[in-house]
Amino acid sequence: MPRSRRSRRTLTLVVLVVLSLSIISLDLNGRTHSITSGVKSVANGVYSPLRNTVVDVLSPIGDFFAGAVHYRSLQSENQQLQAIVGQLREKADEKQFENVELRNLMALQNLRFLDALPTVTAETQEINASNFTLTITIDKGRADGVDVGMAVVGAGGLVGQIIQSFHHTAVVRLITDGQSKVGVTFGPADDLTGTVDGQGPGSPMTADLVPTHTPLHKGEPMYTSSLDGAAFPRGIPVARVKEFHAAAGATQETVTVTPIANLTQLAYVDVVIWEPPA
Fold first, then answer.
1. Which of 4, 10, 127, 155 has a CA-to-CA distance to 107 between 20 and 30 Å?
2. Gap between the Cα atoms of 15 and 175, Å rounded
């Protein structure tokens, strides 16, 4: 009995499908519109609930897959936008950093210690560091008036000295380099002398040739020497006293100092066009 019912249902469905196709064919030919219009109304009444049910079932599924595809597209676009925003922020930070560096150099050119000496602004191209040496390469050289022995200054004070000069580049030995030695003066009357020596990257600089019992104060500044034959223009800030003590029986103080110039910001520097008097 159940099999007979299923057979009748199947037969009914087949008949309805054939009838529908026949009605559509006749309607397209346009010769039986009056006959088919009533039949179509009946067929629409029969199939409409079934069609609506199918649409109700399939629409959420279609919306789900469409939404999933759309979400992946939005996620990809969002990642691309975030990457672009990150690049723009990075460029803005670099530009801001460069502007700060240039403002520092402009302020530096107005400080008293340069005595209106001419300078050449240069951009750092490379930093060269090892266990004992620390140099930078700049984009100015002999063709720009930069020569060996000239002082290089940055924000705050002395950065180093030109040790090699080529046509359009030069190498600067920083004051923290293990071979750097700068004669300095300090004290209330600027009449005390010493030598600030670099000890290599990561090691504190020292002030040597300072006799014991020399009056020293933490934070006291030291400047390039004004003595005859000095290798630098006089009065450029070099370092500040950090710590000092004298061992028993020693003939000079043990003094550690820190650079006054900010050596972590060397995107731009100024080369002072000055040579020691003959």
1. 127
2. 100
| 168 close to 143: Cβ distance less than 8 angstroms | yes
Closest listed residue to residue 105, CA positions, set 273, 267, 276 = 267
Tell me the domains of the chain and their CATH numbers: 2-63 (no CATH), 113-272 (2.40.10.340)
Q: Please give the radius of gyration of the chain, using alpha carbons only, rounded to the nearest integer.
A: 43
Instruction: Kindly provide the residue ranges of all beta strands, DSSP E only, lying in 130-259, ordered along the sequence.
Output: 134-138, 151-154, 157-165, 170-174, 181-186, 192-197, 205-208, 221-224, 237-245, 254-259
Question: Is-contact 204 241, C-beta < 8 A?
Answer: no
Per-residue pLDDT in tens (0 to 9) along the chain, 278 residues = 555 555 555 555 555 555 555 555 544 444 444 444 454 454 455 545 545 554 454 455 555 555 555 556 666 666 776 776 667 666 665 666 555 555 555 544 445 567 778 999 999 999 998 888 899 999 999 999 999 999 999 978 999 999 999 999 999 999 999 999 999 999 988 889 999 999 998 899 999 999 999 999 999 999 998 776 788 999 999 999 999 998 888 899 999 999 999 998 899 999 999 988 76
At a CB cut-off of 8 Å and minimum separation 6, what does 60 contact? none
What is the enclosing helix (H) or strand (E) of 3? helix 2-29
CA distance 176 to 266: 14
C-beta separation of 126 from 172 below 8 A: no
pTM over 0.90: no
